[in-house]
Amino acid sequence: MPKWLKDAIFYEIYPQSFYDSNGDGIGDIQGIIQKLDYVKQLGCNAIWLNPVFDSPFKDAGYDVRNYKKVAPRYGTNADLIELLNVAHKKKIRIILDLVPGHTSDTHPWFKQAKSAKENKLSNRYIFTKCVWDAPPEYRMMCGLCERDGNYMVNYFSSQPALNYGFAEITHPEWQLPMDHPDCKATVEALKDVMRFWLDQGADGFRVDMADSLVKNDDTKEPTATIWADIRKMLDTEYPDAALVAEWCNPPVAINKGGFHCDFYLDHMGNGYNTLFRAGDWGTKAFFNKNGEGNIKAFTDEYVPNYNSTKDNGYISFLTCNHDTPRMTAYLDEEAIKISYATIFTLPGVPFLYYGDEIGMRYLKGLTSVEGGYSRTGSRSPMQWCKGKNFGFSESDTTYIPVDPDENAPTVENQRRKKNSIYRVVKDVIKLRKKYPQLGAEGDFEVMYAEENSFPFVYKRENFVIFVNPLNRVVDVKFEYEVKNSIYQIGEYVQSWEKMTLSPQSFIIVEV
Known about the structure:
Elements: E1 10-13, H1 29-34, H2 36-42, E2 46-49, E3 53-54, E4 66-70, H3 77-89, E5 93-98, H4 108-113, E6 140-141, E7 151-152, H5 181-199, E8 204-207, H6 221-237, E9 242-245, H7 250-256, E10 261-264, H8 271-276, H9 295-309, E11 314-317, H10 333-343, E12 351-353, H11 411-416, H12 421-434, E13 445-448, E14 456-460, E15 463-468, E16 474-477, E17 484-489, E18 492-495, E19 498-501, E20 505-510
Parallel strand pairs: 1-2, 1-12, 2-5, 5-8, 8-9, 9-10, 10-11
Antiparallel strand pairs: 3-4, 6-7, 13-14, 14-15, 15-20, 16-19, 17-20, 18-19
């Protein structure tokens, strides 16, 4: 386990929307370099950098054309290496986004694989035996190649699935087992890409769609065996490199796959969803002040997963990411403050999405940009200050339109605002660093989490955290002696064996 992960607080940067240094309307690597001090001042000491590799950008860079080349719109390989070096001097780690399950259909591997003439890469992707063979249970692209066969995609038509083999062979005429030499070669090609960037100074990888490698893999354990093998490579050759999964299945991803962290993602009806986004635009979310949320839906799922994985890795909470609507689409400002305060005081390694710290809005109704569709509204340019494009770019047009509200939050105005989301994020991160008990590995115990009831109370060693999302006062039984109040959003009163919490409050006390 990389020792630095225990104290890591990640900041996710969507590069094309962060800061434009050359005035072309698209964020770039030099722009990120210029803003590293901002990331550090916020309290984050690690960055997850969304894909910056060469791509036709049909899916915003998640359709990679060349894993070893930086896309020209972001800069050059030398720029990325400079970013890594400058960040390290500032004691900031950077993990890159790795897309292992598919490539762009313009990748040289795919161009060779789709050739009618058999070659060494014919099995790098998954093709049926003939163009008339298109089993409906698979997502296939038909009749697009000179090769007599249809190819499987991971999602978009421009993302042909790499061939890691099949856990269950249902069509032996074209499906290969995982131990086939050509499937093993795909794994080795992935390791080669990882070694390339680790040798340049990258601190690890966030792995996109980490569970998508092996096909016909219901348990996902066959896919986990591939990652366990890759983890062995890292432990031997790059023991300080971190491996973070986009999986949302910690017992498999962490315990079996060897990932150091697994994202707790927003899937419909899962524990994370019930906290922040459940119901019609959050009406049944636990953090919604209307009181229709159910904390048990979260704790019943999270606590067993936490207990089964805490000795092997970390479950990572996200404020949001580039794939989901920002919390501003669901919750009011006070609810967002206590949501983020909760995220940063739970165990594991937290991730803060760019702009969430200032309360950037989710922009509904934007025309899709580079395959973003509904996700486009969470990818708008960072809002630095008042003025043209909120300080993001001097260009007359930007990659994605900026927030049309001239009074939209900016780093500049949120820094000045006394009780802003920015202030809460910065203060709670500072607390997390000051008190290891509130960090990645401090003990965690649920003290109060009842069905359709409030508040949520949990203990981190000698600290007790009270979370009242409701727009009314609530009481909870509490028999401990409070030594100190460590942090407060709102107010509390302790009386005989009872704690009374003000509306929409978040309280940390030492006992």
